[in-house]
Recover the amino acids of this structure.
């Protein structure tokens, strides 16, 4: 069975983009929050993981696995 998991959240393609957003929004930034970074997460997943940015600080992860 083929399957997909969709995750939409505050997230970034790279750590550099996260840091730029953090600096640009420092007065609103929540250092206690965890922010997804595609480059870091996709290397940990054995599944196919794609990232689609939808704003400067948000995106959608689509994780595909033929066993889901």
């Amino acid at each position: 069975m083929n399957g997909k998991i969709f995750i939409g959240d505050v997230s970034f393609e790279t750590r550099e983009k996260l840091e730029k957003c953090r600096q640009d929004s420092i007065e609103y930034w929540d250092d206690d929050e965890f922010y997804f970074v595609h480059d870091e997460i996709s290397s940990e997943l054995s599944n196919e993981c794609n990232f689609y940015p939808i704003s400067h600080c948000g995106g959608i992860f689509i994780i595909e696995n033929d066993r889901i």
